[in-house]
Every structure is written in C-alpha cells, then in structure tokens.
Amino acid sequence: MNVENTTSRFVAIYCRVSTDEQAREGVSLDEQQERLKAYCRAMGWADEVMLFVDDGYSAKSTDRPQLKRLMTYIENGEISKVMVTKLDRMSRRLLDLLTLIDMFQQHQVAFISISESFDTNTPSGRLTLQVLGAVAEFERERIRERVLDNMFHAANQGKWLTQSPYGYRLEDKVLVIHEPEAKTVRQMYDLYLNQGLGFFAIARQLNEEGIPSRHNKEWSIRSVKLLLTNPVYKGTFVWNRVDSSMKKRTIKDDKDWIVIDDCLPAIIDKNTWERVQNKMNRPSIAPRAQTSPHLLGGILKCGNCGSGMSIGWSGSRDRRYRVYRCSANKNKGTCTSKQYKADEVESWFLEGLASLSDSLSHELVPHLVEKARSSQSSRGDQQITAAKNRYKRKVEAYTAGLIELQDLNEEKQRMERIIQENQQSDEQREKVQVEELKGMLESKIKTVLDAIYMLPVEEAKVLLRTLVSKVTVLGEGELDIELLFI
Prior knowledge:
Layout: E1 10-17, H1 19-25, H2 29-43, E2 49-55, H3 65-75, E3 79-84, H4 87-90, H5 94-106, E4 110-113, E5 118-119, H6 123-156, E6 168-171, E7 174-177, H7 179-193, H8 199-208, H9 221-229, E8 237-239, E9 242-243, E10 250-251, E11 258-260, H10 270-280, H11 287-290, E12 300-302, E13 309-314, E14 321-326, H12 327-331, E15 340-341, H13 342-399, H14 405-429, H15 434-454, H16 457-464, E16 468-475, E17 478-483
Parallel strand pairs: 1-2, 1-3, 3-4, 12-16
Antiparallel strand pairs: 4-5, 6-7, 8-11, 9-10, 13-14, 14-15, 16-17
Helix pairs in contact: 8-9, 13-14, 13-15, 15-16
C-alpha cells in the first residue's frame, strides 16, 4: 500500500488497558506510550505524533471513546499511521481487528504493531494481513454454519426471529395472524388475481381507501409486489434467500436457502399463492392492447403462424365492419392467413367459453390437476436437493474436524425427514379434489361471461385477462382457448 502525502498528516499512537489487564499482566499506559514514542523518535516522526488513550476499557468491544475519536481523525484524512505496542491493544477479536485495518486501508492509513513487527506498509505486513484474513474467513464460515443450524431449528419450532411481516404480529417469537391486516392481504391477492388489477392500481386503491401499510406508510408498487411474492403468506418459512453483505442486495443460489413448508400460520391458501406467482411470470400484454376497445385485442393469435392478430376495417364506405387480421400478413406479407370478421370471432369465443363448463369434468380439470401435480413435484425436488446439499457440507465439516458426529447425524435425520415428507406429499397430491377445482372454474367462467355481457369492453377485458391466456383462430368457427389457471 502506498501512503501519499504522509508529511501533512499525523502519526496516531493508540494505547489501551483495562483494569483487569493492569492487575493481572502489569500492563501500564505509561509503558505503552514510552515505547511508542521511542519508536517514533527512532523513525524521525517525533514532531508528528498525536496521542489516543483508552484507560479502563476492554478489548472485547470497539465501543471506546478514544478509538471513536481516532476514527473521526482518520475519516477526515488527518492520520497517516496508527501505532500500537501489540495487536491486542487494538482488539482481541480477530474479526474486529481486520474490520478496523480494512477501514484504515480505505483511508490510506498504515497500521503498525511494534511487538509483532507488523506493518501494513511493508510486504511482510501485508502477507501477515492476508493470512489473518484467511483465518477470519474460516471463522466467519463456522459462524455462518452455526447461524444456519440455529435458524433451521427455530423454523422447525415455528419461531420467527426477524421483524414480523404485514398481516402478522410476533408473540414470544411466534408469528400470529393479525386479522385487521390479514384482511387487507387477502384483498390484495383477490384484486391482483381475480379482478385483474396491477401493482400500481392496487397501491392506489389501498391509499385512496386510507389503508396504511406497516408503520403508517403509503403503499407503493414495490411494497405491493413484495407482499404478493412473500411465501410466508402460504405458511412457508424461507430464510437465507438474500445476500445483504454488499451494497446491492442479490438473490442467493436456491441450494443455500432454508425452506420449510407448512410451519407458519397461512393467510393465503397455497393454490391462490401459486396462481399469483404464475400470473406474474407470464409475458405482459402491451398497454395499447390492454386499453383496446376490442374484446380479443392483445390475446388473439393466428393459427397459421402464431403471430398476433390486430383489428382492422373492411367493406365499403357505407358498410364498414371490423376484422381481425394476422399482423405478419398485414405488415410483412409472410403469412397467408385470411382475415376474419371481428363480430363472428368474438361470437365464436363467447360460445366456446360457455361450452367449457360441459368439458370440465372429462378433459379440462384432469389436465389442470396433472399440471398442478407437476409444479408441486418440482418444488419438492428443490427442497430435497437443498437438504442433500446441506448434508454434504456437514459431511465435509465433520471430515475437517469442525463439527461433532452428533451434529452430522442430526443433519442426516433432517434430510431423511424432508425426503419422507415430500414422498408423503406426492401420495397426497394424488387425492386432489377434482370437483373443487371444477366448481372454482365454473364460477370464474360465469363471472367473466357476465362481465362481458354487462360491462364496457375495456372493463370486461380486465376480468377476461384473469381467466384467458390466449385465443388462437384455427379456422372458420374453430378457436383454441388457453386458460391461465394453472
């Protein structure tokens, strides 16, 4: 490290002693000061010395008045070097010591300990610092393992160790549903999933109704999205998902997550929560198509090439009528699909939507149930993979002598329990109630059809988007209607 302009800055002499140390080891502040001042005289720094003395303070904490004063001088660029007689005068905790040295280096300040011949301004001093850093990193990993174990144990006990989410209160470290807020959570999921409102519209409606978020703040797009994606509302505990060690928070690899299902009181049922996530992950429709006064604008596709079909006009000046025409045909001439009268296509669509109820029990519902099973099975596989990865790390820690055999056995039992629970869940998924899903779909279809017949097209389309993903024209009177439900 090159220290620039050191002639205009001071050399800081830092001395510390606690009452216990002076009685036990005979360490005195006078002795420390004399040794450090003698070193400065030998190096020709005698005229640039500034003294910082903490009398009667332990090295277990960095909360010391003169150390804080020293930090202020360093941050103001007034110190070129910090000197101590021994490393433990600065701190007895390696992590604290390295944190302080790192802060010194950020401000181009050398750190010197005369007893250990430690000087971060020399190659040997920097090498020693790297070795200490490696040791500290090892210690951080051990601490991390212990924290993970404690969090996993707490989660299995149903305990919550951070601030409670909106909709809950904390009682003896256990989440308890707070019904006034839980009612708002259910309302937000309904507005997004069943009424077709986006994040901004939901935030605006809640703010207009005078419903505050946590700490009496107004709702925002971000706060609504975070609430709608938080798995706590379906009773799932997720920890260690975000890396907050850097300025920019990042999502960690899912193998490092701690995920435990059904260990918290749920406000939203799992099926509703999953449907909300699926809707968020679908491609959005262009704003212009959303506000189009034509029922199938933005979701009608060409059965010949797959391109979107846009609205146009045909016929004579006195007898003009709306048509749906393939965009690839209209703009590029690359598709030979014909145009269709819009009124006819929309009539086919309404007939097809109404007839879906007749095929629910025979075709549609079994297909949707199978898709739900596949999705749930994938999540179970992720939990098993994460459990196996944790066990693998514990095996490595046991081999290195970092943990006891009992810890390894507990992790193995935990892994086997997760595998067994997921196998049991597979059997339970086979018993999905088809009739319940059928009833939900019939009710949804009726609500959408009523909206189309009774509301303005722009308002009806908002509800239609909560049921239908896309409609494909296959030919005269032939449509393929794809639903959003699973």
